[in-house]
């Protein structure tokens, strides 16, 4: 069998979506609006490691247009992998199932603890800002050396 010589290396190639993107005609998820569509916004952790002790969503629920607010108590605690190899048939190649849709135990700044659903995006955003959470902060590991130390607390 004779080896074929590669011809694409070092050459430019045309992206199939390039013209649509540079002319503004490309459509993204945010471009689609459907009748009766609702909007959701996450409530995210402002701390890097800790527990949500309590949550107060009364102000958020009182906004006209807020349809629902879900927390870690409302969704199943089914772990999934952050990266994209969760569904491979080879168990040795699967990524670690290390997170849930919503969590009470936050492990990084920005972890999702609640979701606000509203009739419009602005109301969902405002309601998410009105959700108040009391936090119990835990120690944060900020360097590779601290993470590798014998007495380092596991994050997952």
UniProtKB/TrEMBL annotation:
UniProt keywords, alphabetically: Molybdenum, Oxidoreductase
MF-aspect GO terms: iron ion binding; oxidoreductase activity
InterPro entries (UniProt xref): Ald_Oxase/Xan_DH_a/b, Ald_Oxase/Xan_DH_a/b_sf, Ald_Oxase/xanthine_DH-like
SMART domains reported in the protein's UniProt record: Ald_Xan_dh_C
Family per record: Belongs to the xanthine dehydrogenase family.
Presence of the UniProt keyword DNA damage in the record: no
Name used for this protein in its record: Aldehyde oxidase/xanthine dehydrogenase a/b hammerhead domain-containing protein
PANTHER family for this protein: ALDEHYDE OXIDASE 1-RELATED, XANTHINE DEHYDROGENASE
Domain of life according to the entry: Bacteria
